[in-house]
Design brief:
The chain has helices at residues 33-46, 164-169, 185-193, 218-232, 253-268; strands spanning 23-24, 64-66, 69-71, 88-94, 100-101, 107-108, 110-120, 126-136, 148-152, 172-175, 178-181, 197-201, 246-250, 274-278. By secondary structure, it is of the alpha/beta class. The strands form four sheets. Strands 1-14-13-9-12-8-7-4 form an eight-stranded mixed sheet, sandwiched between helices. The radius of gyration is 18 Å and the shape is globular.
Length: 279
């Protein structure tokens, strides 16, 4: 699909369908036209803006240049994908752009790993999705295994350079008419400070260079978030396991994704031990 074609199917309002799922919905306030216009202007000024061109290569042999930003070849999916959803396809160490050395020698707030894993799109077809896992440096002091929080990012943009995992490494990207700010880092770092591990998804087509990002597609986003939680267990050095309680977190675009994932979890990913959802 040409990257200048329409973004996606329209979003749907969803509600968690599992009795075991706790959903917290932030209160909303009706905004007038002036406030909406101001908010839209602010968001357009801080998130990643601009469409990307069609990928130069999806074979993994060459990097993709998206609006003048070179996307690492890691984001180029292989031609054949594994069968099981959540299977880790590849991983590599990833420096955090806002990380600092800790007093004990461990990086703060944690050690990051870039991921590519297998998911299923809304058409029932296999798809490669990218993201990142962060093993926290903070100790988990509460009873039970270390929990995992699967983070669904708010709207970043449509080009591959807008991938949330890319923004973790490059908190601020300025290139021509592209401005990208990794604004999810604050929420992610606060979660890591509690001792919980974090995995973040780039969604379908945002990051992975073989297709257009299906913006606000309920099934694509819900599947991608749940499969990120599955893939996190296979990351080398990860302390989370299948017994780790998993929380879903997201607002804006991510709120729709986390709510959809909570609704889909009983049928799509019953092996994910869902403990709660913030949407």
């Amino acid at each position: 699909m040409n990257r200048r074609e329409t973004r996606s199917r329209s979003a749907r309002t969803v509600h968690p369908g599992s009795p075991a799922t706790r959903t917290t919905t932030a209160p909303t306030r009706r905004a007038g036209p002036a406030r909406v216009s101001l908010l839209a202007g602010v968001v357009a000024g801080v998130v990643c803006v601009g469409l990307s061109t069609a990928p130069a290569s999806a074979s993994g042999a060459e990097p993709v240049v998206s609006r003048g930003v070179t996307i690492p070849t890691f984001y180029n999916p292989p031609t054949e994908l594994p069968a099981a959803d959540g299977t880790l396809i590849r991983s590599e160490a990833m420096p955090l752009g806002l990380g600092i050395p800790g007093l004990d020698g461990r990086p703060m707030p944690g050690t990051a790993t870039r991921l590519m894993y297998k998911s299923t799109d809304s058409a029932g077809q296999p798809v490669a999705v990218t993201g990142a896992y962060i093993e926290p440096s903070a100790t988990w002091h509460k009873p039970g295994p270390r929990p995992l929080v699967a983070v669904a990012s708010g709207t970043m943009g449509q080009g591959d350079q807008c991938a949330p995992s890319f923004a973790l490494q490059h908190p601020l990207t300025l290139n021509g008419n592209t401005v990208s700010v990794g604004y999810e880092s604050l929420a992610i770092y606060r979660i890591l400070a509690t001792g919980a591990a974090v995995v973040i998804t780039d969604y379908v087509g945002l990051g992975a260079t073989d297709r257009l990002h299906t913006y606000a597609n309920r099934l694509d986003q819900g599947h991608a978030l749940l499969d990120a939680a599955r893939a996190a267990r296979a990351v080398p050095g990860a302390s989370v396991t299948a017994n780790s309680p998993t929380g879903l977190y997201g607002y804006s675009q991510g709120g729709g994704a986390s709510a959809a994932a909570a609704e889909l979890q009983p049928s799509y990913a019953p092996d994910v031990k869902l403990a709660g959802t913030y949407a």
